[in-house]
Design a protein that fits this description.
Layout: H1 3-7, H2 17-36, H3 39-64, H4 72-92, H5 99-103, H6 119-143, H7 149-167, H8 170-173, E1 179-180, E2 184-185, E3 188-189, H9 193-219, H10 221-231, H11 233-238, H12 243-269, E4 271-272, H13 279-292, H14 297-317, H15 322-336, H16 340-354
Antiparallel strand pairs: 1-4, 2-3
Length: 378
């Protein structure tokens, strides 16, 4: 804290730079965006904010913990399908089957669907089910000290297997079509622009809360321990800590954030299908974080919004051009921006601090002229 701040009364101290930046972002999301964006663009932004929640989880697991999670589509899909199952049952009514089951010739509701009739089960399940699966998988993987490329391959394999299960069970999951045609979300009519605006505010507030909670975790003692495990796992083990538990917490929390994002994604977009999950979407999620900056949570979230907004804008002008640009973007980030936008900004700040401005030299570099010689008086 600066000397000036310590002299001010407690109630008049200046807010920190982070508090100012967070307040500006919150104001932009909650006050400015709803006023300047059309209904369509605001709905798109709500979708991208769901992706930003996933990106924060990846920033925690990958950026802070060094775990390259290439299977977040699995947890995103679990949260999305949990919410989608509840919404389909609510719209079907008591004793009725969801529409796609009727079309598939299903005569009795599968036992797996029964608990999702109740919101008190479906909402926690959208978050806790991904976390539980991540806990089981993570414990098995980390205890075997699987890391690096092998961990990434296992993550991708799990996401691919999940998609195969979804596609192969038409009567249970909707198959390739997934779950669609949602009409309402806990009293909000999804076709009503005003209710869609309320849904946008819900997503934006959840994103801000998730970011604050994750940041507090990162800047605390656990965050420092997680970074230490990322940098030198063997040294942390030598100091008496269990790296498996440290990494497992980050992995499970990232899975919970992905599940939460999937649950919010369903009412925002109105669909959850295997095409939105799997290997390719999981890799795209990592690209968002890599572009923004995996070691900075705020820029990891911003990367998700920036990439998807650019994808939408470019796809509207050049429908077939985005895939090529996305591949080029991935190559550029790997070769020239390994720390993403956040790293580039930090490098520019460092460069600006070292370069003299218009011949002005820093005070420490100035030479002070010697005083004139004085005569000795005998």
């Amino acid at each position: 804290m600066s000397a000036v701040a310590t002299l001010l009364p407690a109630g008049k101290r200046r807010p920190s730079a982070f508090a100012v930046r967070f307040a500006l972002v919150a104001a932009a999301l909650l006050l400015v965006a709803p006023e300047v964006l059309s209904e369509f663009r605001l709905s798109l932004l709500a979708k991208f904010l769901c992706f930003a929640i996933v990106a924060i989880g990846i920033g925690l697991a990958w950026g802070q913990g060094g775990m390259l999670v290439l299977g977040q589509g699995l947890f995103f899909g679990l949260g999305g399908y949990a919410m989608g199952m509840h919404l389909k049952l609510s719209e079907a009514g008591p004793g009725q089957l969801p529409d796609f089951m009727t079309w598939s010739g299903v005569e009795k509701l599968p036992l797996l669907w029964e608990p999702f009739r109740y919101a008190w089960f479906a909402i926690p399940a959208a978050i806790l089910l991904p976390m539980a699966i991540a806990a089981v998988l993570g414990a098995a993987i980390f205890r075997q000290r699987v890391r690096g490329a092998y961990f990434a391959i296992l993550s991708q394999a799990l996401a691919a297997a999940f998609v195969i299960v979804l596609v192969g069970n038409q009567g249970l999951t909707g198959g390739t079509n997934g779950l669609t045609n949602f009409q309402s979300f806990f009293g909000l009519a999804l076709s009503n622009p005003q209710d869609q605006r309320i849904l946008y505010f819900i997503v934006a507030i959840v994103l801000l809360v998730v970011f604050l909670a994750t940041r507090e975790l990162v800047i605390g003692r656990y965050g420092r321990l997680l970074i230490a495990v990322r940098d030198d796992e063997d040294r942390v083990r030598f100091l008496g800590y269990d790296p498996t538990r440290v990494k497992l917490v980050a992995y499970v929390l990232a899975a919970g954030m992905a599940g939460l994002a999937g649950a919010l994604f369903v009412p925002v977009v109105g669909i959850i299908s295997p095409a939105l999950l799997g290997i390719v979407p999981s890799i795209e999620m990592v690209i968002w974080v890599a572009l923004g900056g995996r070691t900075v949570l705020a820029w990891a979230a911003a990367g998700a919004v920036i990439v998807n907004w650019a994808k939408t804008g470019i796809s509207e002008q050049f429908p077939s051009g985005w895939l090529y640009l996305q591949g080029l973007l991935f190559v550029v980030v790997i070769l020239f921006l390994p720390k993403g936008i956040a790293g580039a900004i930090e490098a520019l700040r460092t460069l600006a601090a070292r370069v003299p401005i218009l011949g002005h030299r820093p005070l420490a570099a100035r030479t002070v002229p010697a005083p004139p010689p004085t005569e000795k008086v005998v």
